[in-house]
Amino acid sequence: xxxxxxxxxxxxREDPLIVWLTGGPGCSSFMxxxxxxxxxxxxxxxxxxxxxxxxxxxxxxxxxxxxxxIDAPIGTGYSYSKxxxxxxxxxxxxxxxxxxxxxxxxxxxxxxxxxxxxxxGDSYSGITVPVLTQEISNGIQGYLLGNxxxxxxxxxxxxxxxxxxxxxxxxxxxxxxxxxxxxKYVNPxxxxxxKCIDLVNECxxxxxxxxxxxxxxxxxxxxxxxxxSGDHDMIVPHISTQSWIKSLGFSIVDDWRPWSVDxxxxxxxxxxxxxxxxATIKGGGHTAPEYRPKECSAMFRRWISENPL
Length: 309
Known about the structure:
Layout: E1 3-6, E2 17-21, H1 30-36, E3 40-42, E4 54-56, E5 66-70, H2 91-108, E6 117-122, H3 125-136, E7 140-146, H4 152-157, H5 159-165, H6 171-181, H7 191-203, H8 238-248, E8 252-261, E9 264-272, E10 276-279, H9 288-291, H10 293-304
């Protein structure tokens, strides 16, 4: 299994250790390393025929934490096997492979055994990170998920209400679709419902579903899809995550309120029992640190310090 390990720029022996799993499944950890919370980012400039340049990321999470970025499952990025059957994987098997990787990694790096351990990831990692956390169980300080896939019924069900709430479809489209589908948008139960869902999908087909305010790059993907924590993500809308959390039945201990960075509202948050915090990143996309790096860095620093947002 291929990985990047970046020591904390502050105090490697004392700062927490984060295991970061990129989503997909099958997206390279280089995405997190160079586009989200890693130590370097691409210097965005007009193409002049040369190779792109990397620059230091001022909002890197490695300024306050050690991070292992892992290419998982096998076949992702530079992770490979000499046995063909190793590529036939699933969520449980992938999580167990990462668990075995960590056992061997700590054997080679025992100086980090006393560091606080966190598991993090985004998108499809909403499935694998909790499984890995459960596999390790003892010694885990906590886990963090950004725009996570949780349950397809919640995630897919949320798209149409989200489109309406964000002003992407009019009241008439929404009311007709809700009425025709009886409020259930997964697996249409009748022809009229299917037609309405097709109408909505056609209406938003030109929208970048990973960040609805950003342009679509037609040269790369004529029909972009989201195999990549923000409130402008249409792939896994924040309202689906809220619905999933609500289904857990946890009581609210600190109700909905804004949280700020540099005196400006950065999003909204709510804290539940069992030490669960939900937070939105205002203006963030599917990979929130890519679109709102400063706000996500501030959120992360407060979270690992066990301070309220």
